[in-house]
C-alpha cells in the first residue's frame, strides 16, 4: 500500500464502495445557531427527506457513553436464557413489552426483538425487563435523549414543509415512542442472510442506533438496495408512513431491511416516534389543494396495530397502501 492510499480520507473510501449510499450527514448542532445557519440546516433536512427519505445526524447531543451503554444493555438482555426472555413473549401486539423471534411474525427472518413503549418513561419503565439490572437505567437514559433529537428533527421537517416548527406541537409533545430493540446473529452459511424483511415503519420518524453495519435502504432512483454507512457517533434517521400521510405524499416513506453482518452479531435500537396511540394522523390541510388532492385516509397507531393483527400471516401487507385514497 502506498503512503498516498493510506491517507485517503474515510469519506472517500465510503463513497468508493458502490453499494454504500452517499447518505447526507447533518450537523444537528447547527440547528440551534443563528437563524441563517438554522435555515440552511432546515433546507438540508428538507432536501434529504424529499429526495431520499433518510439521512444521518451528528453532533446530536447524545454522548457516546449513553449510546454505548444502551447497546450494552440490549446486548446483555439477549444473552439471557431463553426462558427469561420468553416471559415477555406474546402474540398480543398491544402488550406494553413484547419479545419474539424469527419464527412467528412474518417479517423477522432471523431476528430476536424486544419492543416496548418508552414515553412517558415513568408510565412504561415499570413493565421493562428487570434483567439485566442495567437495562432500565441505560435504555431509559438513551430513550429520553433520542426523543429530544426526534422532536428537534420533527420541528425542522415541519418548517421545511412550510408548516412552521410549532405545527401540531402539542400532539408531537404528547406523542408516543416505541423502541424496537433488535438482535441479529452473525451471518453463517446455513442461515438466511436477511435478518429483517423489507418493510417501512409506521410512525413519523425512526432513529436507529446500531452496533455495526447491516441496515439497507431501498434507493428509489435505482430501485436497488444500498447499505447504510456507519459513521462514528452518527445516528441514522428515516421517515415513516405517517410522515408520508402528514405531508400528503411530499415526503415518501422509506423501505428498508436488515441483512446479517458476516463479522459479528448485531444489535440495533430503533426508536419510532408517532402521535399518541389513538390520535389520528391526517394529511395537513395546508398541503391539500386542487392540484394536490388528499391522497391518504387518516389513521392512528391503534389502527396500525389492528391492521397488523388482521394481516399477521401476510408477508405482503402494506399499511400505507391500505390508506391510499
Ligand atoms: C426496525 C428496523 C433495522 C435494523 O426495527 O423497524 O427496521 O437495522 N430495524 O435493525
Ligand atoms: Ni424498520
Characterize this entry briefly:
The chain is of the alpha+beta class and 325 residues long.
Describe this structure in words.
- The structure is a single chain.
- The protein is an alpha+beta fold and 325 residues long.
- Helix content is 32%, strand content 20%.
- The protein has eleven helices and twelve strands.
- It has helices at 3-6, 10-16, 35-51, 64-78, 82-86, 121-124, 135-160, 169-173, 241-246, 301-310, 319-323; strands spanning 25-27, 54-58, 97-100, 112-117, 176-184, 194-199, 205-210, 215-219, 224-227, 235-239, 256-259, 266-274.
- An eight-stranded mixed sheet has the order 1-2-10-7-12-5-4-3. The chain has a four-stranded antiparallel sheet with strand order 6-11-8-9, with no helix packed on it.
- The protein is globular and about 55 Å long.
- Mean pLDDT is 90; it is low at 1-18.
Amino- and carboxy-terminal Cα gap: 58 Å
Small-molecule binders here are: N-oxalylglycine, nickel (II) ion
**Overall outline:** globular
User: What is the helical fraction, as a range of percent?
Assistant: 25-40%
Low-confidence stretches: 1-18
Biggest sheet layout: 8 strands, mixed
Strand order of the largest sheet: 1-2-10-7-12-5-4-3
Structural class, judged by helices and strands?
A: alpha+beta
Number of DSSP-assigned strands: 12
Number of helices: 11
Mean pLDDT over the full residue set? 90
Order of helices and strands: HHEHEHHEEHHHEEEEEEHEEHH
Strand content: 15-25%
Radius of gyration: 19 Å
Amino acid at each position: 500500500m502506498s503512503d498516498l492510499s493510506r491517507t485517503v480520507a474515510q469519506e472517500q473510501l465510503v463513497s468508493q464502495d458502490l453499494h454504500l449510499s452517499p447518505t447526507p450527514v447533518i450537523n444537528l448542532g447547527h440547528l440551534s445557531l443563528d437563524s441563517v445557519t438554522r435555515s440552511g440546516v432546515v433546507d438540508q433536512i428538507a432536501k434529504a427527506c424529499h429526495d431520499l427519505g433518510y439521512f444521518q445526524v451528528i453532533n446530536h447531543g447524545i454522548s457516546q457513553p449513553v449510546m454505548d451503554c444502551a447497546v450494552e444493555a440490549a446486548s446483555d438482555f439477549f444473552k439471557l436464557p431463553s426462558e427469561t426472555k420468553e416471559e415477555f413473549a406474546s402474540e398480543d401486539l398491544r402488550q406494553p413489552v413484547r419479545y419474539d423471534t424469527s419464527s412467528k411474525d412474518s417479517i423477522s427472518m432471523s431476528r430476536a426483538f424486544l419492543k416496548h413503549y418508552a414515553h412517558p418513561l415513568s408510565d412504561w419503565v415499570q413493565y421493562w425487563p428487570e434483567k439485566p439490572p442495567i437495562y432500565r437505567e441505560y435504555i431509559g437514559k438513551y430513550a429520553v435523549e433520542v426523543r429530544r433529537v426526534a422532536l428537534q428533527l420533527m420541528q425542522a421537517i415541519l418548517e421545511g414543509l412550510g408548516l412552521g416548527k410549532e405545527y401540531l406541537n402539542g400532539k408531537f409533545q404528547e406523542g408516543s415512542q416505541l423502541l424496537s430493540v433488535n438482535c441479529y446473529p452473525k451471518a453463517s452459511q446455513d442461515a438466511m442472510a436477511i435478518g429483517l424483511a423489507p418493510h417501512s415503519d409506521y410512525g413519523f420518524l425512526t432513529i436507529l442506533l446500531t452496533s455495526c453495519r447491516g441496515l439497507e435502504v431501498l434507493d428509489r432512483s435505482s430501485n436497488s438496495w444500498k447499505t447504510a454507512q456507519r459513521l462514528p457517533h452518527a445516528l441514522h434517521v428515516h421517515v415513516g408512513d405517517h410522515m408520508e400521510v402528514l405531508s400528503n405524499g411530499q415526503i415518501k416513506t422509506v423501505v428498508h431491511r436488515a441483512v446479517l453482518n458476516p463479522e459479528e452479531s448485531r444489535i440495533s435500537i430503533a426508536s419510532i416516534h408517532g402521535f399518541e396511540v389513538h390520535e389520528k394522523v391526517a394529511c395537513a390541510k395546508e398541503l391539500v389543494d386542487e392540484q394536490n388532492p388528499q391522497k391518504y385516509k387518516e389513521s392512528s397507531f391503534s389502527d396500525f396495530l389492528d391492521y397488523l393483527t388482521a394481516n399477521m400471516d401476510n408477508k405482503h401487507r402494506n399499511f400505507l397502501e391500505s390508506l391510499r385514497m
